[in-house]
Every structure is written in C-alpha cells, then in structure tokens.
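Continuing the series of single-chain predictions for the mutant panel. This is the parent chain; the variants come on the following pages.
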Amino acid sequence: MPCLRAVLFDYNGTLLNDLPLAFASVQKIFRCYQLPEPTLEQYRDEITSNFMEFYWNHGMPRQVTGDDLNKIRKEYFKDHWTKAYFRPDTESVLKKCREQNLLVAIVSAEIKESLEKRLAEAKLDGYFHLVRTQAWPKKEALAETVERLNIPAPSAVYVDDTHEGITDAKSLGMKTIGLTAGYNSVERIIAANPDFVINELSELIPHIVHVCSCGR
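Parent structure:
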C-alpha cells in the first residue's frame, strides 16, 4: 500500500456544516414556486450534482433553469450565511494532519472568494497547502490537485460527504473516507463503498495515525 502523503477534504457538508442552510434554501425555492416541499430525508437521499433532476422529480416545471434556482439560493445564502459553521472538530483534525507531516488540501465547487473568506475568518487558512475552488467536474479537479501537490493519487485520501465525490476519488485510485453527517444519507455513503465510514470528523484521526504509522 502506498504511503499516505496527503489528505484532501471536500468543503461544503464536510468541513463546513452548511446542510441546514442549504436545505432551508431548497425549501425557499419550492415555496417561491408554490410547490410541496420535499423532506430533508428525501433531499439527502436524492440530491446529486445534476440538481435539476431532483427539482424536476419533485414537480418543478421543466422551463425553470438552474440559473433561476441558483439566484434564489445565492440570495438566501447571502442573507443567512451565519447559520453555516465549521464543524467543531475541524481544527483538531487539521492539526493532526499537519503533525503527521501530511499535505492538506481542499477540493471544492465553492466560489473562491467565499471559501477563502470563511477560512481566514476562522483562522484555518494556514493549515492548507492548496485550496482548489470551483472544482467541477470533481474528478478532474481531484486529479489536478494531486498533480499540483506532486504526489500519485493512491498516496492521497479524500474525505467527502457525497456518493459522487467518493466514487470520483475511488476511480482515480485514492483512498476514501465517507462522512455520514453531510449532504448525503448514511445509505448513500455506504453504497459508495468508501474505505472507511465516519460519523464525525474527529473519527478521521485514528485512521490517519494508523495509516501513517504503517508507512513508516
């Protein structure tokens, strides 16, 4: 097994607990179009990067575009951004990664300015060797990230809270850790078959220490 050299993190739903905010924006969208609101369980079971399929399946008219929905979502996020917060164990996990001399990166579809501002405000920006924003498609962004870190994909572990993110990383040969506390349900995370499943971010620490000690 290749020695672990880097830990790559997803951002939304993984480091940043913004699921409550995101789902509230979904509810707002359905109210704007006077449609029945889906449940949180439905959202976590069904949402994918092709988000329009979710909305169409729940009655959204086909003439409605992603731009239409994103306008409502962005306005809602702007007005309620303080309701999203970094998971309380984020810094302790990042510290442990650095103590193990691992490269640490974020690979996220989030907008650069927004992500970097939040990291700076939380005084977490100094923990990252690389922050890859607007990372879509995710598979290509992950491949680009390990290339920029100058490491082979199998020597990196990727931590994500979505089925798609996990399967994209696995297809590149990365180790994967699925977090069940984010955007996708426990069932969808397990279905992605990650190497490890964690319920809290802090549960990542013993996996990191174990893998690093095995490589020494």
